[in-house]
Structures are given as C-alpha cells and as structure tokens.
Amino acid sequence: MKKIAILIGASNNKGNTRSLAQYVADKTNATIYNLNNYTISPFDYQHKNIDDDFIPLVESLLSYDHIIFASPVYWYCMSAQMKVFFDRMSDLLHVKKELGRELRGKSSSVISTGSTVNPERSFEEVFINSFDYLGVKYKGMIYCYCEHNFDLADHEKIVNQKTNELSIALN
Ligand SMILES: Cc1cc2nc3c(=O)[nH]c(=O)nc-3n(C[C@H](O)[C@H](O)[C@H](O)COP(=O)(O)O)c2cc1C
Fold first, then answer.
1. From the alpha carbon of 16, which atom of ligand 1 is closest?
2. CATH, domain 4-170, list 3.40.50.2000, 3.40.50.300, 3.40.50.360, 3.30.420.40
3. Is 10 a pocket residue for ligand 1 (Cβ < 6 Å)?
4. Ligand 1 pocket residue status of 109, Cβ below 6 Å
C-alpha cells in the first residue's frame, strides 16, 4: 500500500474539511498535516523566507507516495492557507530544484467541502493545472456538499466509494 499524507488548509481546525479528511485518513491509514501548525509566509521573490516552515514541511511530505490536499471552497477557490502553500511551490522551481524534481513521480488528489451541491469547476481546475505543471499525477477529488456541519451519515456512501476508488488507483 502506498504511503499517503493529507495536507489540510482550512480556517477551522474542527470544521467540515477536517472531519472529511479525518474520515479518509482513517480509511486509508494516511497521516494528517495541518497548515495551521506551520509558519509559512507568502511567496517572496528574494526568497528571504526560505528558512520558514515551508521547506521542512515539503521534505516531510516528499516521504509519502501520494499527497492529498484538503481545502474547503472559500470564494470559489482553495483556502488562503493552501494558496500560500501553492505559491511557495515556486521555491521548488528556483532555489530548491532538487525537491521540485522529487515531486515528479508523486501522485495527488483533493478533498474538499463547500456549501454548493457541486463545486465551481474553477476550484478543481487550479489543482489540476498546478499538478500538471509540477509533473504530479492527479487522481481526482472527494467533495462533500455541507449545508451545515459535516455529518458522515449524509455522505458515507459516496465518500466510501470515492475513497475505495482512490485506494484502487494507488495500488
Ligand atoms: C470565507 C468563506 C468563503 C466561502 N465561500 C464559498 C464558496 O465560494 N463556495 C461554496 O460552495 N462554499 C463557500 N463557503 C462555505 C464553505 O466552503 C463550507 O461551509 C465548508 O464546508 C467550510 O469548511 P470548513 O469547516 O473546513 O472551513 C465559504 C465559507 C467561508 C467561511
């Protein structure tokens, strides 16, 4: 079985995205990383922030075969925490190229929750385009429409199906 990490970027540490991510983690034996536990500053053209927590976090994530990015839909996009992380991926194309090369050959997927039945296409497209650019294979998205608080009973069938599909795709 491939080693899986789930990277959560959300404003609520006990929110809907966290609940969904925890369920998928339990099913797939994945390890959860929460961006709120790291100090990662926005992209800097001079890379003066290269000593913050971004590079150590990437090094940890690179020890996994598959990385799941978990973000709620905030204003049709990924969360701000996740966007800062993706902006910082640019460091891997300039100053830490050896880590960027290690990303190739990894695979990724997305976990998300939102208050619309179907997420805007733009939400997933940003991930798809970014993975494509980075040479990371994309394996799809598990999305749950949460009108209020996430209740597994409302989603168990579809989440199990999608999680099983992911597990099969990773074998
Ligand atoms: C700042 C903010 C912006 C949001 N924007 C959207 C949106 O554009 N589309 C959507 O479907 N839901 C939107 N929502 C609803 C959240 O995606 C939804 O409640 C989600 O389950 C929250 O996840 P969380 O508990 O992990 O933060 C937004 C919520 C917040 C707080």
1. 25
2. 3.40.50.360
3. yes
4. no
